Amino acid sequence: MKVLGFTSIHYGKEYLKESLLSVVNHVEAMVISYSRRPSHGQRLSQECPDKEEEIKAICDEVLGDKLIWISVDRYGSEAEHRNTRYTHAKGYDLILTIDADEVYKEFDIPNALTFAMNNKERYFGINGYINFWRSFEYCCLDGFRPIRIENLNNHNQLQNHNCPLIVYHFSTCQSEPILRYKMKAFGHASEIRSNWIDGIYYAWTPENDIQDVHPVAFGLWNTIKFDKNSLPQYLKDHPNFNKFLI
Length: 246
Description:
Layout: E1 3-9, H1 13-23, E2 29-35, H2 52-63, E3 67-72, H3 78-82, E4 94-97, E5 102-104, H4 109-118, E6 123-133, E7 138-140, E8 147-151, E9 159-172, H5 176-185, H6 196-201, E10 224-225, H7 233-236
Parallel strand pairs: 1-2, 1-4, 2-3, 6-9
Antiparallel strand pairs: 4-8, 5-9, 6-7, 6-8, 7-10
Helix pairs in contact: 1-2
């Protein structure tokens, strides 16, 4: 079983090291597809807080000679950006995708890859997302199961959304400059709920426990406590681990 790792990135250095550490021992090579400008059709005058050289340095440090670096000014769409995973996929059985704000539970990865290898579908959605909320001690759970593994040997368009793998997702647990930039640059920017950033996200505290907090959908996210001591050591070493609120 030969596995190619893949990450598409424009910003995201805050958790990139931990993200890559969680998968580096489970892939033969890792394609990092970098875009200097957003690939979601957003045209921003605001400068991205994360620099290419910062992102590349993290990738070099963690991946070493496993790194395959692709850098362009921009892609026409998110799909075009993500499809660059195929440019180096010849000879591989599986593609394991991970976003820069995701960290996989490393113990689960071999079983997830075996699950994808042994089933008939081509695309595998992940059952196990934990969406951290403003802290390593609070999270939200939902039924979101994005495709993260692709079996290149299965020549069909079938999807299986029951691939078991715990994913620590830090999309709503990032520093303020990145959070504010993300909400203007990502693919759902036009769908963000009115005054969500200041009226819900930064208004939330454990004491007032505002609920129904998803940035786009209503009735989907409610915050619950999370035992951060169950996290892997490299997340315990993260600068945000002991912060009350991020």
